[in-house]
Inverse folding.
């Protein structure tokens, strides 16, 4: 049983424009690389026992600087990967908005099955299994870092807060943000969600203001 | 997209010791320091209005930010702490002796607070005050609300669809900031329990 930091990968050129999903070759841009470096600086003094990451490049590249300063290996977890969006991968937000199932994604995600991909319910089960397995590998109060994706982290936070699956999209997860799960034998809690450097709180907040189009879209 | 910053008051001598409820305990030295840090973190934002509960500790936490932004702190009775009835003022050591307190911790939807306000009543008054604010400031406003742990938990859980019985899953530390936006009738949780300073980093 364990304390888990859920860290979303840094920025890449697809964020807010196109659904990257599991497509290969989506790399961090300069801002994303800077975010990864800042994360490593902020987290380097914590007693992190293990670093896990989704197999996708953008997550691995975000984990890299931390692994380097901590002189630790990154353990790749297939199950920390982003939702398998099947045929929706690579589409622009604009294109997805025209699809019939867009409404289902927005309003009843519990019923959504992506064509040739996963359902949200299946993805949530996979992610929770992954977190359970990770926590069973560690001692109580061990701290571990897991690098993953926005929808994946939202599904996990919703699960552990007991927010219904149909409402999971009401939880926002920004690039390079940190959320925490505390899993002990008696109690599971979510001490905080979408934590960012407090010095950057105002600038990030203002940044969100500038991109109102993002609010109803699927990040990535 | 109008956004609401939900800020819990800073430390008082009651925090973690006893249930203050509506007892008007002031901030202690630590709490006054936190109020300055809240102002520092938020003074770059173009905040349209500042609201606080009628209790001293929330108004004191709002004060440095209000002064910096030259805004009045508007008092809202609906943002007042839960009326904890006979439990008010008891220490947490005393409270754990009460079987109702245990039920309240595990499932606030089923607990009866002796002489106090039940969860549904609280949820009704706090959801009303937030909806009124969104009516009053429909376009891209930023509102800062200084209130209490229980009240902030109720507001967040109501707008993200968390059942009342899971209210205590949410943690709200003194002087923490959480952010909520309402878009297309749905609430969106932008940040939960952002603590100042980020003390575990």
């Amino acid at each position: 049983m364990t304390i888990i930091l859920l860290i979303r990968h840094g920025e890449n050129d697809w964020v807010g424009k196109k659904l990257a999903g599991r497509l290969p070759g989506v790399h961090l841009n300069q801002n994303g690389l800077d975010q990864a470096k800042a994360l490593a600086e902020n987290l380097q003094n914590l007693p992190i026992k293990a670093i896990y990451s989704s197999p996708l490049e953008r997550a691995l590249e975000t984990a890299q600087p931390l692994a380097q300063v901590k002189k630790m290996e990154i353990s790749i977890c297939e199950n920390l990967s982003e939702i398998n969006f099947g045929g929706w991968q690579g589409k622009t937000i604009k294109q997805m908005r025209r699809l019939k199932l867009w409404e289902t994604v927005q309003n009843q995600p519990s019923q959504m099955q992506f064509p040739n991909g996963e359902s949200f319910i299946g993805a949530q089960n996979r992610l929770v299994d992954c977190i359970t397995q990770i926590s069973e590998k560690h001692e109580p109060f061990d701290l571990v870092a897991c690098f993953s994706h926005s929808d994946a982290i939202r599904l996990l936070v919703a699960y552990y807060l007991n927010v219904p699956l149909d409402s999971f999209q009401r939880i926002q997860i920004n690039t390079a943000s940190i959320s925490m799960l505390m899993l002990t034998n008696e109690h599971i809690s979510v001490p905080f969600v979408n934590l960012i450097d407090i010095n950057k709180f105002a600038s990030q907040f203002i940044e969100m203001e500038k991109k109102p189009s993002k609010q109803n879209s699927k990040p990535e | 997209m109008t956004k609401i910053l939900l800020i819990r008051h800073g430390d008082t001598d009651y925090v973690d010791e006893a249930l203050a409820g509506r007892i008007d305990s002031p901030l202690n030295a630590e709490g006054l320091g936190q109020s300055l840090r809240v102002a520092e973190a938020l003074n770059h934002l173009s905040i349209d209005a500042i609201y606080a509960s009628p209790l001293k500790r929330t108004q004191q936490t709002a004060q440095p930010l209000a002064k910096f932004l030259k805004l009045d702190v508007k008092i809202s009775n609906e943002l007042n702490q839960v009326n904890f009835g006979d439990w008010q003022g008891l220490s947490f050591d005393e409270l754990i002796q009460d079987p109702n307190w245990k039920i309240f911790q595990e499932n606030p939807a089923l607990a009866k607070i002796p002489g106090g306000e039940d969860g549904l009543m609280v949820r009704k008054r706090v959801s009303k005050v937030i909806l009124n604010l969104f009516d009053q400031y429909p376009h891209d406003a930023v509102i800062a609300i200084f209130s209490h742990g229980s009240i902030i938990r109720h507001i967040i859980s109501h707008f993200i669809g968390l059942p009342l019985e899971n209210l205590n899953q949410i943690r709200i530390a003194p002087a923490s900031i959480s952010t909520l936006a309402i878009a297309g009738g749905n609430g969106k949780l932008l940040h939960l329990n952002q603590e100042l300073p980020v003390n575990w980093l």
Q: What stands out?
A: The domain at 2-216 of chain A is CATH 3.40.50.1240 (Rossmann fold). Chain A touches chain B through 36 residues (CB under 8 Å).
